[in-house]
Design a protein that fits this description.
Radius of gyration: 14 Å
Order of helices and strands: EHHEHEHEEH
CATH architecture: 3-Layer(aba) Sandwich
Structural class: alpha/beta
Distance between the termini: 19 Å
Number of strands: 5
Strand order of the largest sheet: 2-1-3-4-5
Bound molecules: 1,3,4-trihydroxy-5-OXO-cyclohexanecarboxylic acid
Oligomer: single chain
Number of domains: 1
Shape: globular
Number of helices: 5
């Protein structure tokens, strides 16, 4: 039996990593990101599944389906971070410990990126560490199960 099962959810345009604004998001692709997190979880005996969508409703569906199936959610809602009360409500509905991740340091970017509807609900918010932020989120869950 694995230590735990995590769901990694990425929102709109994260599939464009590598092409998209490399000066902000780096050169790695979405597949590179998944491989990095997958290998890290494997080392730690954690089961992990990945989901990326450009559609808000699909993200809500995957969160709802996580109910009773996952021990933790790592989510980068991308631009929906700043707009979506529906994603917040879905996270609240399933009530699975959640960590918010952003590749860039949104706190140092445009005013319209300063709002995060999910932040207050999430156990932790990690931003500005590039892909490593997702590994830091995995570490958070490892520490959580040790407690
Ligand atoms: C992002 C930051 C958001 O403001 C932006 O809309 C994204 C990516 C990040 O990972 O840094 O698409 O969530």
């Amino acid at each position: 039996m694995s230590l735990m099962k995590l769901l990694v959810v990425n929102g709109p345009n994260i599939n464009m990593l590598g092409i998209r604004e490399p000066e902000v998001y780096g050169n790695g692709t979405y597949i590179d990101l998944c491989n990095l997190v997958d290998n890290y979880c494997r080392e730690k005996d954690i089961e992990v599944e990945f989901f990326q969508s450009n559609h808000e409703g699909d993200i809500i569906d995957i969160i709802q389906n996580a109910h009773d199936n996952f021990d933790g959610i790592i989510i980068n809602p991308a631009a929906y971070t700043h707009t979506s009360i529906a994603i917040l409500d879905a996270l609240k509905a399933v009530d699975i410990p959640t960590v918010e991740v952003h590749i860039s340091d949104v706190s140092k970017r445009e005013d319209y990126r300063q709002v995060s509807f999910i932040r207050d609900y999430c156990k932790k918010s990690i931003m500005g560490f590039g892909f490593k932020g997702y590994l830091m989120a995995v570490d958070y869950f490892v520490e959580l199960v040790k407690k």
